[in-house]
Amino acid sequence: MADARNFLLNSDYPVDKIVYKTEDSASVPANTDDNVSAGITIAHGLPFTPLPELIWSNSSDFSVTSNTWDETYAVSSGGGAMPPDGQYYTITADDTNLYIFRYNWGVGAKTLYYRIFCFMPSTASEDSDIDGTANNASNFILDTDNNYMKVAATGRLVSGGTESYSHGLGFVPRVRYWTETSGTIGWRVTNQLIESDPTGTTSTTGLIIDSTDLTWLNPNSFDYLHYRLYADG
After folding, report:
1. 1 assigned to some structural domain
2. Residue 51: which CATH number?
3. How far is CA 131 from CA 100, 109, 117, 218, in A?
4. Cβ distance 14 to 151 under 8 Å?
5. What is the pLDDT of residues 165-212, one digit of tens each?
6. Which long-range contacts (C-beta less than 8 Å, at least 24 apart) are formed by 35-40?
């Protein structure tokens, strides 16, 4: 099989299929802390619990975007400090709704612009009845100015000790993952939970990706881990 990293698109591998997407805006008052319950609830209408991702901005044109508090907005402060303007947003999903949790500890109300897109979990039936999203596409179905990430594997790991999936790609691949607890799925992008462990440091918890395996260590806090692993290094 040819090395998928040498191709923008390779028919040996499927590409991601978005099963739901939406976008909107909302005002977030100062001192908002959705620690207990979500501030925004959206019915997704899917016959399964999807794998959600959230992109957000304070600009309507998304000229500055973030997908979590410790990524774009917090890079300059080392990833562990409070983000500029004291705000971040997270997303979860269950079998009925999507939930956005809002945190705004800054000065004054903020306008949140958000875009949500969801993937089908590996546990859902391939015959699920899903509305198309093509009406939101650009003029190009495929655009060779872009790379299309090739899905090498999708799956779910069950909690209880060390669980792993052997991908055997021979290089450290890209991966998306979500954790599930009591039927609610949340997108995980926290840097400390996913690493390639290039220095050989012994880790006791988290998700480790190397050239042969995806390994989930001591998963005590969650019921499942859903992953999408790509043949793109």
Report:
1. no
2. 2.60.40
3. 22, 35, 13, 38
4. yes
5. 999 999 989 888 898 999 999 876 544 444 444 445 556 667 888 899
6. 35/101, 38/92, 38/99, 38/100, 38/101, 39/100, 39/101, 39/102, 40/99, 40/100, 40/102
What six digits make up the tokens of 11? Answer: 């028919």
**In contact, 229 and 175? CB cutoff 8 Å:** yes
At 41, list the tokens. Answer: 């609830």
Residue 182 to residue 190: CA distance in whole angstroms: 20
Question: Residue 102 belongs to what domain range?
Answer: 18-119
Q: How many domains does the chain have?
A: 2
| Token representation of residue 33 | 């802390």
Instruction: Report the candidate in 40, 30, 112 with the shortest Cα–Cα distance to residue 73.
Output: 112
DSSP string across 108-119? S-EEEEEEEEEE
Q: Which amino acid is at 159?
A: S
User: Which residues in the chain belong to E strands, given as ranges?
Assistant: 18-28, 32-33, 40-43, 51-57, 87-93, 97-104, 110-119, 151-158, 163-166, 174-181, 184-188, 194-195, 206-209, 213-217, 224-230
Q: What is the pTM (predicted TM-score) of this model?
A: 0.80
Q: Which DSSP string do the residues of 39-61 spell out, in sequence order?
A: SEEEE---SS--EEEEEEESSTT
